[in-house]
Write a structure and sequence with these properties.
The chain has helices at residues 2-38, 49-53, 55-59, 84-90, 102-115, 153-162; strands at 73-77, 94-99, 119-123, 137-142, 163-171. The chain has 6 helices and 5 strands. The radius of gyration is 18 Å and the shape is globular.
Length: 174
Amino acid sequence: QYLRWKQTKMSRRLKQNLEVEQALAREHNRKAWDKMVVGKRCFTKPAKDEDLHNPLGVIDAQGWLGGDIANQQVLCLAAGGGRQSAIYAAAGANVTVVDISPAMLELDRQVAQQRGFELRIVEASMDDLSVFSNAEFDIVIQPVSTCYLPNIAPIFMEVARVLRSGGIYISQHK
């Protein structure tokens, strides 16, 4: 019985430590990306005009999306910055963009206003999509980002929850 008690106590402590580590990583990432926007660094530049002329050619060169995403519900996860959201919107999708960085999301707002796109913009961490309903999206696109959190299991659990049955999840990794 002592061993069970000890294992339970250690398990709780590990869980608490992981939650603290995850929270610290989120705050670090928020600050880092906000700073990158101010410095106009790589990955903080909105879509270019040429990207929007043939958006499916840019985002779907392999044909995974089936050639037409008009009216599809697309979640651009951890994808603020005005690139992903603009390209998917130009392809006719109904786009929701989620990012932890207010500065990155401001770029999405600016691009949407300049180009006349309607975007749903949500400030949240990629591992907590509790603001969304189950099976809300047809497509989830996630540029390289899972490498920024110490525990990726919650991200995949949330994506599985918000993605419709038969939906498509495209995640880029380093």
